[in-house]
């Protein structure tokens, strides 16, 4: 890659470099870490003492002054991590350069896969350092790079999977696997004010398990409203003990953000984080995207009347107005 004019003026990364970093196929927390690392503002002991005149500047592994350079390159502990890896050469070019200068250089000479691997390893080193400092835990040095790379490849393969799922748009509702249930979710934002949600849960035969509606007077941005619909489904899953559940929404952007395929605004990211945590607590939950045409019963439920700030749940028989849609989804034609 040609060095762009201006990139080295003042030896800082230009917008093009930053764009490249933001576009790397990395978990958002690693990108944020990279940004802090490049700016040399990670709270290492040395950085903290230099900035606040407080705390302890000693490296938790060897007692020398803990600068970023020390933590990621020079500490005996770090050297043992890098030693067996072929990434070492790439990283040791960072000697006598600032992180920013080093990053400029590597970005101009290496493919994004190599930069992704390197940043993930740096993030992992930081993670291990914190785990040692705060929890007293220590992993074998030689295992750290393989673990980091495995974690990265898992993240990247999950992403490919979900893109694949999103691309497989079918025009009909697809039942879940026999050992799972599927909840379709939708949100409705009413022009007169307020938000409604609908959830319908079915099994692999299309058999009805539960339908629920909920309404509040509050109004949210569409994506947040959809996210709260997913939270409603997770809440029902907890109450009715649905531990292996596919949750389907027709909001593709939200699914991509939940799967960390896309960066989200802080407000959305907070709700996403809540959903991820809650999904972990409830059990084996998968969040999937489906086309609007496959989500009609949930759409109808979301628009169904229900008193403000309350919910209504059907468990043995579906509400009458859904019968037609359920038959259609099961390919049985209309009951009438
Ligand atoms: Zn050290």
Automatic annotation (TrEMBL):
What Gene Ontology molecular function terms does this protein carry? nucleic acid binding; RNA-DNA hybrid ribonuclease activity
The record places domain Reverse transcriptase zinc-binding at: 17-82
RNase H type-1 domain residues: 184-303
Write down the InterPro entries for this protein, in alphabetical order. Answer: RNase_H-like_dom_plant (IPR044730), RNase_H-like_EbsB-rel (IPR052929), RNaseH-like_sf (IPR012337), RNaseH_domain (IPR002156), RNaseH_sf (IPR036397), RVT-Znf (IPR026960)
Top-rank taxon, per record: Eukaryota
The protein, known as: Uncharacterized protein
Write down the species: Linum trigynum
Q: What are the top taxonomic ranks of the organism?
A: Eukaryota, Viridiplantae, Streptophyta, Embryophyta, Tracheophyta
């Amino acid at each position: 890659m040609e060095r762009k004019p201006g990139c080295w003026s003042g030896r800082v990364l230009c917008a093009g470099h930053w764009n490249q970093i933001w576009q790397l196929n990395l978990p958002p927390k690693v990108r944020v870490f990279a940004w802090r690392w490049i700016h040399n503002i990670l709270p290492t002991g040395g950085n903290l003492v230099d900035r606040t005149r407080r705390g302890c500047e000693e490296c938790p592994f060897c007692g020398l002054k803990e600068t970023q350079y020390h933590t990621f390159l020079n500490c005996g502990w770090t050297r043992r991590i890098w030693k067996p890896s072929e990434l070492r050469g790439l990283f040791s070019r960072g000697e006598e350069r600032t992180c920013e200068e080093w990053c400029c250089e590597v970005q101009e000479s290496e493919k994004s896969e190599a930069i992704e691997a390197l940043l993930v390893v740096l993030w992992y080193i930081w993670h291990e350092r914190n785990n040692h400092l705060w929890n007293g835990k220590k992993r074998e040095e030689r295992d750290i790079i393989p673990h980091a790379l495995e974690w990265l490849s898992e993240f990247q393969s999950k992403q490919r999977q979900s893109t694949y799922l999103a691309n497989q748009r079918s025009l009909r509702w697809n039942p879940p696997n026999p050992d799972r249930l599927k909840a379709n979710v939708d949100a409705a934002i009413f022009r007169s004010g307020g938000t409604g949600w609908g959830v319908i849960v079915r099994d692999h035969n299309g058999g009805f398990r539960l339908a629920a509606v909920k309404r509040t007077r509050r109004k949210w941005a569409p994506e947040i409203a959809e996210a709260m619909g997913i939270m409603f489904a997770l809440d029902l899953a907890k109450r009715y003990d649905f531990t292996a559940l596919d949750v389907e929404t027709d909001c593709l952007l939200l699914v991509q953000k939940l799967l960390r395929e896309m960066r989200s605004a802080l407000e959305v990211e907070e709700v996403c984080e809540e959903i991820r945590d809650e999904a972990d607590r409830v059990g084996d939950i998968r969040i999937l995207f489906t086309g609007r045409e496959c989500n009609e019963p949930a759409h109808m439920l979301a628009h169904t009347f229900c008193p403000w700030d309350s919910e209504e749940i059907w468990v043995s028989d579906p509400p009458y107005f859904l019968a037609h849609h359920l038959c259609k989804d099961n390919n049985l034609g209309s009951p009438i």
